[in-house]
Amino acid sequence: MSTGKDLYSLLSSSNVDFDQYETLYKYFHSHPELSFQEAQTASTIAAHLRSLNAGYEIHTSIGGHGLAGVFRNGTGKTVLLRADMDALPIKEDTGLDYASKVTMRDNDDIVKPVMHACGHDMHVTALLTAAERLAKMKNSWAGILIVLFQPNEERGGGAQAMVDDGLYSKIPIPDIVLGQHVMAMKAGDIGCRVGNIMSEADSFKITLFGRGGHGSMPHRTVDPVVMAAGVVMKLQTVVSREVDPNQFAVVTVGSLQAGQTENIISDRAEIRVNVRTQDGEVRHRVLAAIRRIVKGECEASGAMKEPSIEVTTKFPLSVNDESIAKSVHDSFGSFFGNCFDPDIACSTASEDYSILGSSNGKPCCFWFFGGVDEKTWNEAKTRGRLAEDVAVNHSPFFAPVIQPTLKTGVDALCVAALTFSKSS
Prior knowledge:
Blueprint: H1 4-12, H2 18-30, H3 39-51, E1 57-62, E2 66-73, E3 78-84, E4 103-105, E5 111-113, H4 120-136, E6 143-150, H5 158-164, H6 167-170, E7 176-186, E8 190-191, E9 195-198, E10 200-209, E11 213-214, H7 224-242, E12 249-257, E13 264-265, E14 268-277, H8 280-301, E15 308-315, E16 318-320, H9 322-336, E17 340-341, H10 355-358, E18 364-372, H11 374-382, H12 386-389, H13 402-419
Parallel strand pairs: 3-6, 3-7, 7-18, 8-17
Antiparallel strand pairs: 1-2, 2-6, 4-5, 8-18, 9-16, 10-14, 10-15, 11-13, 12-14
């Protein structure tokens, strides 16, 4: 196992053309693709890996548009580095000259604007850069490196789809699975922690059934809009009144849709709910409360039939293995110095990357790195306006500053991989 200081010397002597990768990042940013539809992104990634002429075995079309490159470099640990590559149905409002203008039809055949509002374009670019850099450094380490590009992270199904599609019959089973995410933190900063690193998530589509009719005759109807409003308001009490204040939970109603015009009372309403928890007992209590409230409100409103509660996505709790995380911490502490936080707060967001390890009982470690321009961050912090002036992931204004964000992401992937790769 290499030390952070050793890794600093190795990486300093093995640079890549970052200008090329900054251009590639802008391409990915301006050409986003929704979950399940990442065909062009995957094709570009595969073409770039081949262009390196480094000896990567490339496996494509795994679990949809997933792909992996395998670099065999003697005897040692098998380390998997993962990046996600799908984008979001958001209209970009960053004002960048390489901003997305893309629209796509989603899985419901509705045309949506598309944006890389969660930084997956940065993840892909950082991993491609690390793939070249680590291949160039092959005389300094030994083992097997897997660079894996996962589809459909935003809908929570990509990692499992790759496993179910025979991922590990195509590539070696890794000893360690590593991943990262760019966040609304100061660019150049990086953070990790032992134990829980990202929350468990459950999402639902709830359909309430009323009786439609004329807007002037509400007494002849069962109004699903009023029913839905009652559900939404009562859901706000789940966390505030049913969860111990010392425990964590979030219940978000992200969408409420009913009717098409003002003089028609619809016959149904659809609510989409997202839940985040970090404890199994709390999760059980919150989900039970949601079902109780929905069914109770429908009964009180005289609904025409039982509500439909459909699970739409589910993300596992992301837990960093203690031994692996401590090794990563030692290397990151030596390499990044004061820019590294070894006890960053567990994120309220969620990820499915850990399935790539848990499906075979292998340990995982995940970390965060910042993407906010240092001047912007410092000014906002000084004014006490971080929440107002710093765009977070999934915002139409989210736009990581390319450098030093990209270099930090590349360095982190390389440092972590080399931490577990035997010196040759």
